[in-house]
Amino acid sequence: AIHQTPPDLFRKQNQTAEIHCSHTIDNYDQILWYKQSVDGSFQLLGYMLTNSANPEPGMAVKMKGGASKGQICTLILEELHLSSSAVYYCACRYHSVTCHCFTAQKPVFLPSTPAGVGLSITWLI
After folding, report:
1. Structural domain that includes position 32
2. In whole angstroms, how large is the CA radius of gyration of the chain?
3. Is 78 helix (H, G, I), strand (E, B) or coil?
4. What residues does the Immunoglobulin V-set domain cover (predicted)?
5. What is the Cα–Cα distance from 1 to 3, expressed in whole angstroms?
6. Could you tell me whether strands 117-124 and 42-49 are parallel, antiparallel, or unpaired per DSSP bridges?
7. For residues 57 and 69, what is the distance between their CA atoms, to the nearest angstrom?
8. Number of other CB atoms surrounding residue 21 within 10 Å
9. What is the residue-wise DSSP string for 6-59?
10. What is residue 107's predicted lDDT score, i.e. its pLDDT?
11. Residue 83 phi, psi dihedral angles, 5° rounding
């Protein structure tokens, strides 16, 4: 199961909001954060892989914590503005990376295959 808190969040402009996400799924080590704007469009804000935060370029967000089972990953939205009003989703998944390295200088093959995904949401109004 995946759990996100708080379910609703009310903030004024220029304030900071924090949304927390955790899960209870063995071997899942990645939490992804999405924003669904009022017009219905989705935007990837970034992801936490184990204990490494990876915000998308140009996104005014921070992340802290961890993405493994039982850990809490926090999305931090600073200096809120009207366009911050949205539904925020966290998703978790299993991240698998295989690296085939050869003695000859060939490209490294790095596939990522999700074994499953869980979702939870927070409304920011």
Report:
1. 2-124
2. 16
3. coil
4. 4-95
5. 7
6. unpaired
7. 27
8. 29
9. -SEE---TT--EEEEEEE--TT--EEEEEEE-TTS-EEEEEEEETTEEEEPTT-
10. 37
11. -75, -5
* Domain containing residue 74: CATH number: 2.60.40.10
Got the DSSP string for 63-77?
EEE--STT--EEEEE
What is the total count of domains within the chain? 1
- Residue pointed to by tokens 């993405």: 67
Reference 81, options 25, 3, 11; nearest CA is 11
Which pair of tokens denotes residue 22?
Answer: 């955790």
Q: Which pLDDT score is estimated for 38? A: 86
Q: What's the pTM? A: 0.79
- At residue 69, the pLDDT reads 96
What residues have CB less than 8 Å from 108, skipping those under 6 apart?
99, 100, 101
Instruction: Determine how β-strand 30-36 pairs with β-strand 2-5.
Output: unpaired
Q: Is the pLDDT of residue 45 over 80?
A: yes
State the Cα–Cα distance between residues 78 and 101, nearest whole angstrom: 41
